[in-house]
Amino acid sequence: MKEKGKIHLFTAIPFISTMPRKLFHRRFFNHSIYDWLNLFSNLLVPIAIGILTIVLPLQQDNLNEKQNEHSYQISFTNRLRNLQAVHDQQKQMILNQYQQDLTDLMLKYDSSLNSTDVNDDDDERISLVIRTKTLHALRQLDPARKIFLIQLLIDSGIQHRINISHTDLSSLIFPPGSFYSHLRMINIIAKNLTLKSIFLYRSNFSYSNFDDSTFQDSNCSHADFSYTSLQRTNWINTDATQVMFNYTNLFEANITNEQLIKARSLLGATLPNGTVIPN
């Protein structure tokens, strides 16, 4: 029976009210279950507050660390982009300066460059100046700008008058459909070069290294590949009519017997299967 003016414990705490009265009034270490529950409830709040006091700062520190790391990554990416932009600008300045120098030389020595009666010493001096500037620029430019520089030489009409030997033109990709008739790439390194669907009639590639390059769908008729390394090169649908392959290394090249039969000469050449043509 409830006492008047009081709220019984079993009414205030429903889950406890379901407990047997005898169990509720049992005593442990001279304290009732109610006393122990009251003690635990009093201790639970400060313990929870203490745990939160420790955990929340740790979570905040972890969140701040992640935010700082994200900010660092953004900052690093921006710096890298800025650095790449600066390098790109520098390369473009080098190309622009080369173009200006070439134009100035052509205007200054126009009569010499186009005259057949030019003095040999003057001709050699002009060619040496252009060669020096060309090689200096090629060493600093990226592949796309290297191709643009070569196109400048071809368009200017003086490409055949300078020697760009020992230049590294590896991995360049020439624009398909380009016309490079009488192109001169003698004694150069041009591994993994892409010359696909290019007109290369009577071009000279002798004494060079074109390993792993492709000449697919190109016109290489009457070109000279003497003493050139053409290992693992691609000649699918390439016109190799009257091509000079003297002492050329064609080991594992993708070229057909029909194409080789049309060649002008295979003296001393190494065929795709490793067979060497006698001298």
CATH topology of the domain at 165-279: Pectate Lyase C-like
**Element-level helix/strand string:** HHHEEHHHHH
Q: Main beta sheet, described?
A: 2 strands, antiparallel
Radius of gyration: 41 Å
Question: Can you describe this structure?
Answer:
There is one protein chain. This protein is mainly α and about 280 residues long. Among the domains are: about 25-85; about 165-279, 3 Solenoid (Pectate Lyase C-like). It contains eight helices and two strands. The protein has helices at about 10, 15, 20-25, 35-110, 110-115, 120-140, 145-155, 255-260, and strands at about 25-30, 30. Strands 1-2 form a two-stranded antiparallel ribbon. Strand 1 and strand 2 (about 30) form a beta hairpin. The model is unreliable at about 1-15 (pLDDT under 50).
List keywords for this structure.
mainly alpha; Pectate Lyase C-like; 8 helices; disordered N terminus
Summarize this entry quickly.
The protein is an all-alpha fold and 279 residues long. It has helices spanning 9-12, 14-17, 21-24, 33-108, 110-114, 120-140, 143-156, 257-261; strands at residues 27-28, 31-32. A hairpin with a 2-residue loop joins strand 1 (27-28) and strand 2 (31-32).
